[in-house]
Cytochrome P450
Amino acid sequence: TTSWLHRKRRDKGYPPGPQPLPLVGCAQQIDSVRPWMTYTEWKVLYGDIVYYTALGQDAVVLNSEKVAEDLLEKRSSNYSDRMNMSIVMEFYGVAFDTVFMRHNDTWRLHRRILQQGLRREPVKAYRSMQAQRALELLHNLKDYPGEALQHFHRYSGSIILGVVYDHNVGLDKDRDTVLETVAEANGTGIHVVTPGTAVLVKAFPFLRHIPRWMPGGWLNAAYCKGQLDDMVNVPFDELKNRIVSGEAGECIGIDALERSIQAKIPEHDVRDACGSAFSAGAETTASALMVFFLAMTLHPEVQSRAQHEIDTVVDADRLPTFDDSLSLPYIEAIYRETLRWYPVLPLGIPHASERDDIYRGHQIPGGSVVIPNVWAMTRDADKYPDPEVFNPDRFLDGEGNVTDDECDFVFGFGRRVCPGRHLVKASLWVAIACILAELRIEKAKDSEGRTIEPNPEWICGMTMCPKPFPCNVFARGR
Ligand code: HEM
């Protein structure tokens, strides 16, 4: 059977790739926790573009920036779709989400709504709010260093709620029911919305009825849908109430609602696009800060150099702001190296092709999942020598200025590129700069004063995030 399949594949002229097994295809050959590792091994075996099939789904892995740009950017009219996940979308309440929408008119509308408010210029309006949240973050890290991941979630979640709904999460760890509702629902959703689950539930639709209390209960569709419905409705309804009472300030939601009335856009599209910002942006931003935190714990020498740079440029009586960024090249380099060292979306968000295509003489069937292997791009040793090493210097030239490489590929490609990237940059940059200005992060010590070496472990799903690890945080006292 295998040789028959092999011949069939060769006849079709697909890109090189692993031998499929009957029925399951290549599913069992792929690391189920870190599929990007398998794909990166395939890069060595088969090259920059690899074809495989799993459970009847054609898939193409793009293992270099060049190939990803050639297809996802230069041929974006064919490669801007997403995989057909209609079962998950419908039953699990994911249909609202811009991220997983097919390449259609509703998606275009969502993109316009989000992009209007998230362009480079308009996001500057939120810098003072971001700075205020960074200050809260510093307090929380100092008081409860062991809960860094929760603090980063609160930081990223409260910025998005502010930018999208003008919802002001109380400072100083106050409980906030809107943030709690949205964050919990998002946690449930993230679990379910992976390509793996989509394929599984498509193949075995009864899995969506598994009761919550049984093993596999996280696959229960009704529960997930209830949560995700709350996630889009609760903050949006609150915004509408505040509009009525005249209390709502500038935010993407208000702008979009005003425009939607003139342009006759249905209100639920505004609501859904707004909800998508949280689902796409909260976890990713928090994970990136956790990567930064790990890098700083492991590299005291990087911290010292960054602190020296800040102390030279920023007076001790104030915190760095995003306006200082051009005078702080090493901080910029740390930001870029954080994105590269452990990209929080190691496979980006896979695209799909709409029609058959030919690239470098290979057939790419329409309806393929097209996976940009961002992990492999970060491990390209020609561009990033010793790629496993956290080394901000790779983004500086001989004179200490930042290079042209902004590591943009971690934000995706073509028409689907992350619309939140300008906002994220400011959120991450200001958090990184303020943490380095005010705090010293060190490896924890055991009761006998011996250093505990962190042994990085990762939470892997669609995103990748370091598991909490022991460390100490001190105020530097500038
Ligand atoms: C470190 C933080 C972030 C990273 C690394 C990141 C990265 C990405 C990537 C790789 C994609 C897929 C692009 C593609 O399909 O080629 C994406 C899509 C998206 N991102 Fe982000 N993102 C981050 C934060 C945010 C934030 C804060 C927001 C919103 C405020 C946001 C909103 C979105 C949306 C709505 C999409 C879907 C775009 C579409 O499918 O058309 N992201 N992001």
Summary: The pocket of protoporphyrin IX containing FE is lined by residues 98-99, 111, 114, 160, 276-277, 280-281, 284-285, 288, 344-345, 348-349, 351, 410-413, 416-420, 423-424 (CB under 6 Å).
